[in-house]
Amino acid sequence: MKPQNLISVYQGAAALEKASTNVEKKFKVLKSHEIRNLNSFCNILQTCGCNISDFDGFFVGYTIGQIGKEFDLLTFGSDLTINIEIKSELKVAKKEEKILKQLRVNNYYLKFLGRPLRLFTYVDNDGFYEYMVETDSLVKIASSVIASCVHNHRVDYSVDPDREFVPSNYLVSPFNSTDKFISGEYFLTTAQQKIKEEIACELQAHPFMYFSISANAGTGKTLMMYDIAKDMIRANTKVVLIHCGIINVGHERLRDYCGWDIRSISSVTVFSINNIFDECEIVFIDEAQRIREDQLELIIQKTTEKEIPVVFSYDVKQYLKSSEGRDIEAYLKNKHPNIKLSPKRLTTKIRTNKEMASFITNLLNIGSSRDHLNYSCVTIEYFYEMGTLMEYLDFLQQSGWTALTFTSSQYSPDPYDSLSGVCSRNAHSVIGQEFPKVAFVMDDNFRYNENKLLRRILFPILRHKYIFYACIMFGNSVLVDKFQGINNILLFQLWYSHAAPPIFQDHLWLTVEAFGKCLLDDVVVFFREAVRNYQYHSTIDFSKRQESALCIRNTVAELS
What we know:
single chain; alpha/beta; disordered C terminus; seven-stranded mixed sheet
């Protein structure tokens, strides 16, 4: 996104509005009422002395990646950031409360930029308001105040907000950023807050009922559920949280230092059930898609007997074995139709990396994602020696990466058990958690079938909300070759060591950066040809955008 001139924005949008109803939606930046409101805003500032240049350098409708937080107007200077929200006429009831709430949230996100802030709201046919950060209050101001601020502002056009906003500052997890969660350094989305309020309201009307919160990965269901539980615990409600997986470090901190009653589903048995629900007033069950039927029935029996409300949170797509992936809503409606059930759904993804989502889609089903994104967040490495692989994983972990692998089979030997010892964390141990940089290993047990579908289920490890991936291939050159359907891999590295020709035996490091429309099969072809050129000793590096396969082959020919 580029900064724009506000006069141009509303006049251009108005022209498109008048031109034709057939104009593609993606070109219509503003809706009709937004055009009118922005026009009104600019007219008022012009009457206060602002000229055309003062309206330049604004980001219109900027959204923080992965978070989904949107700002109407943002402009950045070297010593000041200005945020202006534009609104249609509001009803008097709770008007200022609504404005204050929005600007308070905006301040939370913008304060991480480390610059002084001024936050305003313009309400059509009403006037201007400014949020006072020091006193956490709202003040109605004269139009001349904001006009002076905009006129004196010196835009820094070099600022790229996509680089300024770091997702890890905002993606609070009860498990991986427990301190921020406990101190309330986060905000729920509108959809999350709506479900939270609905649950509170429905519980007042019906003290005993069930809630099923169905949500895809990246929608923030766990944060929302733990936020609801936190408020109830602070209101002295006896809360029991059951996690359908292994208790992690975040769980332990909440339990040991904050006094939360958190249990693993494995602890729920016929012998412990009475003790667990003895004084309980509400139960929260997270990752409920993994619960066994006998465990679920045991909980249903005891909570209906004692009339204890239950909140289930689950994602049917996130499972570790075929017996999981239970749809709680469907199960309850089918097996227990007499229990009052209130289904909820979270659909808006706020913790999803679009590049990662596209890459994962293509990895699992070659060519199925047509987003044509540059996968700068993905690095692919190849090793064929276990010792070298282990050394590299240690290096990554020391550099802040989280290495994940598959859980070894408890009952019978499994071909994938060979990977279970490459690192300490497996898919079962990180259920519900998130990490900024993740590495995982794929060996020759991972194959594509005739339909270009990857045979091994990777869902427990492949999560759209991670920021960077390192895909490490171990002794699987066929899989590397099959990655030809994945476009725009920005960095693809191979090590050729002892099995290579003598001149490569000193671990010659080959790097190719393939951009634009250069397919990965072209990169593989390049490597094959490069290895044949024994006389070329130095690193080969291509980093120019839109390099074609022909250009690569010609370059190799010249080098030989």
